[in-house]
Design brief:
Oligomer: single chain
Number of helices: 8
Strand content: under 5%
Distance between the termini: 79 Å
Structural class: mainly alpha
Helix content: over 70%
Shape: globular
Number of strands: 0
Order of helices and strands: HHHHHHHH
Largest sheet: none
Length: 154
């Protein structure tokens, strides 16, 4: 979790390599990581914390670590992990599937920030365009009156 939160891809991939060398399968790694993220997410709220079947000591440790990760980060990583689990069974290169998931998880905060900034920029552009169109519509509706007023005055 620390490697992913700090976007330290090298540490994350090295940890995966160590775990795989010990004989664990990639899907076991992803499922364990997702369970960890689920526990962190549950620890963010006192009501869901009660649903966890852990010792008080472990609950406290999860609660402390959960303060380092945003709920958005945890939910997105859970989603990526779930996608990996589904794809893993069909994959011909299972290790690559897990590595790609770790890469995505590692940079999910950056992607979210870029997407949020992009969305804010698009929203701002839409508002500006809407205001410009509204202003132009008001100008166009005022032109005929002005012409009519000139004809009446002349």
């Amino acid at each position: 979790t620390d490697a992913l939160l700090t976007e330290n891809l090298s540490d994350g991939l090295q940890l995966l390599d160590q775990i795989l060398k010990k004989g664990f399968e990639g899907d076991d790694f992803i499922l364990g990581l997702c369970e960890h993220f689920r526990n962190l997410l549950f620890c963010k709220d006192a009501n869901t914390l009660a649903l966890m079947e852990l010792s008080e000591n472990l609950k406290q440790k999860y609660h402390e670590q959960s303060s380092l990760a945003s709920a958005d980060f945890l939910v997105n990583c859970l989603n990526l992990g779930n996608q990996c689990d589904v794809q893993y069974k069909q994959s011909k290169n299972k290790r690559l599937t897990v590595e790609l998931t770790l890469i995505k998880m590692c940079y999910v905060n950056s992607v979210l920030t870029v997407e949020a900034d992009s969305s804010k920029k698009k929203l701002s552009e839409v508002k500006e365009n809407t205001q410009d169109k509204k202003y132009k519509t008001q100008e166009e509706s005022q032109e005929p009156r002005t012409k009519r007023e000139k004809k009446v005055c002349a």
